[in-house]
Amino acid sequence: MLDSLVAQKISRIGQLEIVSSEERFVLCHRDDVGRTDLRNYEIDEALEVAKFDDARSYRPLKTAPNLRHGWKIFARDLLQVEKAIDAIYPGRLAVLHAFKSGQLITTSLRQTLNRQSGMYRVSAKISDEQIDGLVGNFCRSDGGCLRTILWRRDSSDKIASSKLPPAKFDPAVDQYLSAKRPRSATAAAESLPLMCQEACNLLVAACRDAVKGESAAPLAPQDPGGET
To answer: What are phi and psi of 46, to 5 degrees?
Structure first.
């Protein structure tokens, strides 16, 4: 997958833009392309880049569309590019590889909720109506999450939420959406999608809150135990 970066010269994944030349690669925020005042970061500092947003608030969901601006990372080869991407979007390259090789296994939301234990067991009691609204808000690309949803709501193969557009489930669509870069169905050739094979822990926590009548559908809830 990353070999294509060499041929394309420019590629994108999430809010990352990766520009290749004969000698190196440059990674930066897609909104920052063309800026001359970007701060240089080392490969090992990519985790720090992904940790906080522009307001220095912690980012529990690394695929939320709030990656901070103002930085660039130089990579000398594809191994370093992969290391930087994995730091900013943990596990997404492995999931994408499994998807492209036909080996990715998805898990429906009901399956994920039914296997919860302890304080999250109650999340399985969420209604279909609650799921429809919660997922539609929590997972939307504009302000929620940039992943492309592959999982279904339950064993009946019902879509995750009727409130999300068809593009949210299409790997050929670039999910990044901002005033500067409208979403485009023709961007697949230059973008690598962030695939979502099952509901993350943050969505599970939001389901629990919805059942308990707490603050449902927060866009950046506290991580109950690590991101899936």
So the answer is: -60, -35
